[in-house]
Amino acid sequence: MQISARNRLKGTVIEVTKGATTAHVRIDIGGGSTVTASITNEAVDELDISVGKTAYAVVKASDVMVAVD
User: Fold this and answer.
1) Is residue 64 one of the residues assigned to a domain?
2) Which InterPro entries match (predicted)?
3) Contacts of 29 (CB under 8 A, 6+ apart)
4) Residue 25: exposed, middle, or buried by beta-carbon count in 10 A (0-12, 13-18, 19+)?
5) CB of 18 closer than 8 Å to CB of 5
6) Does 42 fall in a domain?
């Protein structure tokens, strides 16, 4: 796999929760951190995503906001 995004977080799928059209995929990226992605159910099926498999959370964002009280 080649991709231009530099924010690739390798981990293990720990949970897949399918809804009516969208699934939430939780990936353990180590160090006690997890990332949750919302993707289509179709994508889950096409990529054969399931608990225990290795996956990458690929983060591509144009803005990062910071807020304080």
Assistant:
1) no
2) Mo/tungstate-bd_C_term_dom (IPR008995), Mop_domain (IPR004606), Transp-assoc_OB_typ1 (IPR005116)
3) 9, 10, 11, 35, 57
4) buried
5) no
6) yes
Q: Which domain holds residue 20?
A: 7-59
Residue with tokens 């293990």: 12
pLDDT in tens, 35-63: 999 999 999 999 999 999 999 999 887 77
> What is the domain count for the chain?
1
Q: Is residue 22 part of a domain?
A: yes
Contact at 8 Å (CB) between 47 and 25?
no
Which stretches does DSSP call E strand in the chain?
Answer: 7-18, 22-30, 33-40, 54-59
In whole angstroms, what is the distance from residue 69 CA to residue 30 CA? 29
CB-CB neighbours of 11 under 10 Å: 17
CATH number at residue 38: 2.40.50.100
Structural domain contains residue 68: no
